From TrEMBL:
The lineage of its organism: Bacteria, Bacillati, Actinomycetota, Actinomycetes, Kitasatosporales. It comes from Streptomyces tsukubensis. SUPFAM superfamilies: SpoIIaa-like. This is Anti-anti-sigma factor. InterPro entries: Bact_StressResp_Reg, STAS_dom, STAS_dom_sf. Residues 7-118 form the STAS domain. Pfam families: STAS (PF01740). Residues 116-136 are annotated as: Disordered.
Length: 136
């Protein structure tokens, strides 16, 4: 019997990168389940990168900060690079005020920049024009 995925924390696969996000409703139990699921998926899907979008996270506490640091360390040990994207200014201010440092955690301003850092490039769709549209 397979374990159910934690509710509210989807993990998507885009090639060899896993994309997920955190919400304010992350409690201790769901954080542990999320960590377990993500590390299992890194291994089972040979992920070389993980993007964690926290743009919807309005507040952060020491538990969530520690969870992000532990996820980053575990992922690196499993051979995947983690980028945390979309940190709001209020979250950054809170981290500084609490004296919490996300040691070893790479960040990006938004998910698009995070995916670019992980090696993804946006390519125009065929309908956006290009050399094949010339002369028609």
């Amino acid at each position: 019997m397979s374990r159910p995925r934690p509710a509210g924390v989807p993990i998507l696969r885009l090639g060899d990168v896993l994309v997920t996000g955190l919400l304010n409703e992350l409690d201790d139990r769901s954080a542990v389940a999320f960590t377990d699921e993500l590390t299992e998926r890194i291994t089972s899907e040979n992920a070389r990168g993980v993007l964690i979008d926290i743009s919807r996270l309005e507040i952060i506490d020491s538990f969530v900060a520690r969870t992000l640091m532990e996820l980053t360390t575990m992922s690196r040990l499993l051979g995947a690079r983690v980028i945390v994207a979309g940190m709001r200014p209020a979250v950054a201010i809170t981290l500084v005020e609490l004296g919490l440092q996300l040691t070893g955690v790479e960040t990006a301003l938004n998910a698009e920049q995070g995916m670019t850092a992980l090696g993804w490039r946006r390519t125009p769709a065929p309908s956006e024009g290009g050399p094949d549209d010339a002369g028609q």
